[in-house]
Every structure is written in C-alpha cells, then in structure tokens.
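Chapter review. Work through the record for Pilus assembly protein PilM before attempting the end-of-chapter questions.
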Amino acid sequence: MISLGSLFSRQPAPLLGLDISSSSVKLVELGRGPDGRYVIERCAIELLERGCISDGNIEKFDEVAEAMRRVVKKSGTRTRNVAMALPASAVITKKIILPGGLSEQELEVQVEAEANQYIPFSLDEVSLDFCVIGPSPSSAGDVEVLIAASRKEKVQDRQGLAEAAGLKPVVLDVESYASRMAAGRLIEGLPQGGLDTMVALFEVGAFTTSMQVIRNSDVLYDRDQAFGGAQLTQLIVRQYGFTPEEAEAKKRSGDLPEDYAASVLKPFVDSLAQEIGRALQFFFTSTPHNRVDHILVAGGSAALPGLVDAITAHTSFSCSLADPFDGMQVADTVREKKMRREAPSYLTSCGLALRRFAQ
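Structure tokens for Pilus assembly protein PilM:
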C-alpha cells in the first residue's frame, strides 16, 4: 500500500496557517468567539530575500526556516501545529466517481487503482491523498472523490521546513485551494449569497499573478501570468536610485518622494489593471464565457491606491479588495491598523488557518 499523506487532513486543535510565497512568509491563527464568529488571534508577516523561493521551489532552506522562526516569534503564538501549502503546479488533482458505501480501506484501494491512470510517476514516488466531496451529481448512489498527489520530495521539503522552524506540520494543502476557501466567505457576501455568480479571483504576487474563475465553488479556469508587485519596486529603483532593499522598504512604509504617486504609482496601477484586463480577455477567447460578475483582487499589491477603481474602469466589471478578515473579530494580540493595511496579502494563509474549522 502507498502511504496516504495529509493533503486534506482536518485538525480541530489550534492551528497556524503559514503561507510561504516568493517574497514573504505570512502567518494567521484564527479562533472562534462565543457568538460563532471567527476571531483573528495572530497575524504576522516576515519578508524573504529574493531567490529564497523560486517557482514554488525552496532554494535557500536555512533562510526560509529562519524567516518562519521569526514570524512565529513576532506573532507571539504558542501554537505549534501548522497548515502549509504546495503550489498548484506541484500537485496533480483529479475528480473521480466511485461507488457509494465503501469503507475507508476500500476507498484507499480504489483510489490507488484509479491514481495509476492519472499520475505520470511511480506511486512509490508520490504522496497521495483523497477527499470524498459528496454524492455524484451525475450517477445516483455514487460519490465524487478528489484525488491529490505530489512528488514525495516536495512534501518532505515543506515538512522539513516546518520541523526546522520548531513547528509540527499537520495539514498540507494546495495554495489555490486555500485561497479559494478564504475567498468563499467573501463570495457568499455578494448578492444572492454568490449563487451562480462568476467571480474572477486575482492574487497579485511579487513576480506572478494567479487567476482563478470560480462559480458555485467550481473552478472554471485558472492561469498564472508573469507580472507582479516586484515591477513596482524596480520602477522605484530606477526613478530614485534606491537599492532594491531600500525601495521595497519605502514602498511598504509609504516613505517616498512627493512625485511618487503621479510619476511612478499611477502608471504602474494602470499597467496592472491592463494586465488583469488582458488576462480576462484570454479567458473569454479560450472559453464559452464572455463576462464575469465580479473581480476580487488579493495579494501584496492589491491594496495599492486606485487599483480597484482602475480595474473597474479598464474592464467595466465590478471589483473589490479580497479582505479575508472581513467580518471577523480582532483579538487584542493583533495590531489592527497594520493588519487592515496588509489584509489582501493574507488570503492564502487565512484559508490555511480556516482548515482548523473545516468539517
């Protein structure tokens, strides 16, 4: 038998959501108040030097592990159980239909047999897991099952990082699944509870912007594009002669010359809105769809002044910031002003933290 991993493990005990991106490590810990509302108990971010993570691969293990230790210390948490994620490019997922009423052991045998058809590696080389989604929509009595598989070394890299940082990895998710879980709460807040609403979710990272088009929890389309917030940092370097490190720090603190907004920020925001418009056009030309109902934008650059308005003006679709903490209570342990400013960059880590409550 193959070893089943923990891509869909569920853990009711306190749990940290830890998102490792190309530019930072982000931590979120959620609780629940007496009224059932989520409570933001911890949240912190620690920057990574460029080159620590490349295309989702860990290039500088010790530096990333040290950043993880720092973000845990900065947050003040005592929780050690952690949910982490792999990039979607490192995970093969497939929905299959299996007979209903099978025991867990019978399901494992069936999943292993089915997985052979879809995974281009020996099953000895992969960590494989599955999750029963629910009754099959197409065949009565059957169930829909999601299989997820990743190369063992990819899983072991994340586990090793957690352990090197003094943490216990209990959930290994997929980044795009985690961000969808957090975005799901926001979609429910749209008209008609988001039912049948076509939502384009953009996560603007440092070097890559990921796009997912979602309707009723189904992903109709996903695509990554090579543009992101690091291009704004490069523009600041060129305009003012700062080092890249100085430019990044000043971009985050807002400590920039008077002409920054007009000569650097606005052209970049317009360019970013155009890239998002182009990504949508690519979706329209490669699918039967010709519109979306709403755009959600997340990531470190999402909160740039004027971006939401620029996207709406450029695409003619309504747009809003994806604030994963919307409607949550804030514990005294969290610096609320800073958290609100950085909220859209916590989408994936918030989704990972929500795994604590997944049933």
